[in-house]
């Protein structure tokens, strides 16, 4: 993208995409002046770690096996006899012990250590990361690698940890990509069009899910509307899956999120909207007609991030409303929210009340 999306807006995109908006709002990034994404992650993880230290680190039971004179837990009889511990008034015992040395805390500490030593992180933030590492003396030092995040189990009421682990995972993923390509700098995924397309899609879906509580908001598969289905090999037809389907009492809206350099394609110096995007969306709408009800006259919307010019065009094609719209991701976040809500206002879905 030629347009630079402000760091704070990237943060909100991620918070929505991870379905962690409430947890993301616990960390204030308004004071973040840097334009570097790695600085943002360091700032967020630092403030988030301070929050969980104040609240109390996650604790869990782990199995401890040791030779002891104080019998506790389960006695390992045969290993104790084999090592002649009984003769010395000891026994090998296995017992549960509550500890903060959990995998989740180990991953957070490993990420803090990585950021504390990364030359591209702001020096003030690096010093803060070093101090937080020292504030976790009871958490083991583990390698920051592809296996670090495996097997972590969190309680349902511990969503803030999930948010912080999402940050850790993103830092780890980008680090692995950088190492694979032989570089030594953090790879900014904002420049990765494929990654940003997925982020933009997930953001829009969770944004509307959050703000349209009276509607069903999801990605869904659409079946082909074919004649004599029994006589035809339907499995050979390509699958159709929407980015976002919003279904209310009166209307269904299908949204396709497109993160492209331009809304337009050019042919013989003539500009037009991307044909493949329009054909795909219209195919969804036509094949949904067979469902009847609110799907029979479903509307469609293509949403692009704004690059060079603002676009909002509305068409009526074969009974279906179809809109092509751009959203300016460089605006203040409150303006972005207002714009996205205005896009669906005419469908009377029923917006959530805002404070």
Structural write-up:
This protein has 355 residues and is α+β, with helices and mostly antiparallel strands. The chain has three domains: 7-57 and 104-191, no CATH class; 60-99, no CATH class; 194-228 and 237-347, Trna Endonuclease, Chain: A, domain 1 (3-Layer(aba) Sandwich), CATH 3.40.1350. It contains ten helices and 13 strands. It has helices at residues 7-17, 21-24, 37-55, 77-82, 103-116, 123-134, 159-180, 193-211, 275-288, 333-344, and strands spanning 60-68, 74-75, 91-99, 216-218, 221-222, 240-241, 244-247, 252-257, 264-267, 270-273, 299-305, 312-317, 320-327. The strands form four sheets. The protein has a six-stranded mixed sheet, with helices on both faces. It has a three-stranded antiparallel sheet with strand order 1-3-2. The model has no long low-confidence stretch (mean pLDDT 87).
Short description:
The chain is an alpha+beta fold and 355 residues long. The chain has helices spanning 7-17, 21-24, 37-55, 77-82, 103-116, 123-134, 159-180, 193-211, 275-288, 333-344; strands at 60-68, 74-75, 91-99, 216-218, 221-222, 240-241, 244-247, 252-257, 264-267, 270-273, 299-305, 312-317, 320-327.
- Summarize model confidence as the mean pLDDT: 87
> How would you classify the helix and strand content by structural class?
alpha+beta
- Individual helix count: 10
Secondary-structure element string:
HHHEEHEHHHHEEEEEEEHEEEH
User: What is the strand tally?
Assistant: 13
Briefly, what CATH class of the largest domain? Alpha Beta
Largest sheet descriptor = 6 strands, mixed
Low-confidence segments: none
